[in-house]
Amino acid sequence: MNAVKINRLEATLHALHNDAKKDYLRIGKGVVKSIFRPMQPADFEHAYLPISKEQGELLRKLILDHKCKNVVEFGTSFGISTIYLADAVRQTGGKVITTELLESKAKRAMQNLSHAGLENYVDLKIGDAMQTLKGHNAPIDFLFLDGWKDLYLPLFKMLEPQFHAGTLIYADNMDMAGTQYYGHYVLNRKQVYASQPLHGGKALLTSCLT
Ligand SMILES: C[S@@+](CC[C@H](N)C(=O)[O-])C[C@H]1O[C@@H](n2cnc3c(N)ncnc32)[C@H](O)[C@@H]1O
Description:
Layout: H1 3-20, H2 23-33, H3 53-65, E1 70-74, H4 80-92, E2 95-100, H5 103-115, E3 122-126, H6 129-132, E4 142-145, H7 152-159, E5 168-171, H8 180-187, E6 193-198, E7 203-208
Parallel strand pairs: 1-2, 1-4, 2-3, 4-5
Antiparallel strand pairs: 5-7, 6-7
The structure holds S-adenosylmethionine.
């Protein structure tokens, strides 16, 4: 990538992280909508809910250090995390498969990936990840979990046959309700998975041993 393209990538990330600072307003509106019923993804249609820059840099470094090519992401939103993942696979010669439930968010993500010059490294599937990734039958080197929290475990189990020794799984928001089922599952299978908390317990990095 030449200097102009790198500037384009960094400028896009900078602008998106900056705009995401106003998420507290968008999240507030979403929470109000769900006072009398359970929250649902559409309540946060206008919110990024993104990873931090620090997390993005770590995702990119992990993929580069481990030379991961086949990357799968659950929860694209507007594509901030996808940009970090795509920039990493651009350098390893791989591809990101990412999936987003809401069509409006997926469209914005594709625009953002395009602004960053990374659209050719991403296959974005629109719909419920339990459907869009059903039948995914290719090896997974790196899995990033950041969609609806209750679905971490069922999605992980669905994709588990595609893991191999060295597959990395980075799960965000491990401090949120719903993720504990996933946490119990991997932490109780020490012969198969080795895990370490990251970012003060906000995330969990798991390596598949077999
Ligand atoms: C925390 S946000 C993802 C943030 C993004 N990874 C980033 O860092 O920029 C979670 C996203 O998952 C999406 N989502 C929720 N349930 C989903 C499902 N069943 N399948 C696919 N995406 C889903 C939501 O619409 C939301 O945009």
